[in-house]
């Protein structure tokens, strides 16, 4: 179990909980995006790299699907607490960066 301030992630159980222990309902793609982003904290991740890691190299998924899933993940994490430490930053023309705020 790894804690990120307002939420924790259990990598073995593939479960995300808030600071009170309530499970945060994530789709498999949202969970995989979160896990991949957290394993690459601070690194610029291309859209293609995210698509390949979450949906698989041979999957036919468009960038708008990725953008929508990132948006839903941001919303769910923001609902936890307005002071969430995790920030998903859009890097125009490239992809995203997952960062932790102080």
What does this structure look like?
By secondary structure, this protein is an alpha+beta fold. Helix content is 38%, strand content 25%. It contains 3 helices and 6 strands; from the N terminus they run βββαβααββ. The chain has a 3-stranded antiparallel beta sheet with strand order 1-2-3, with no helix packed on it. A 3-stranded antiparallel beta sheet has the order 4-6-5. α1 crosses α2 and α1 packs across α3. The protein is globular, with a radius of gyration of 13 Å. The chain starts with a strand and ends with a strand.
Task: Give a quick summary of the entry.
By secondary structure, this protein is an alpha+beta fold.
Topology:
Blueprint: E1 2-3, E2 7-10, E3 15-18, H1 28-39, E4 44-46, H2 47-55, H3 63-80, E5 86-91, E6 95-100
Antiparallel strand pairs: 1-2, 2-3, 4-6, 5-6
Helix pairs in contact: 1-2, 1-3
What is the share of helical residues? 25-40%
Largest sheet: 3 strands, antiparallel
- N-to-C span: 20 Å
Binned strand content: 15-25%
- Silhouette: globular
Give me the Rg, rounded.
Answer: 13 Å
The total beta strand count reads: 6
Unreliable residue runs: none
Q: What is the assembly state of the chains in this entry?
A: single chain
Structural class: alpha+beta
| Arithmetic mean of pLDDT | 86
Strand order of the largest sheet: 1-2-3
**Helix segment tally:** 3
Helix/strand order, N-terminal first: EEEHEHHEE
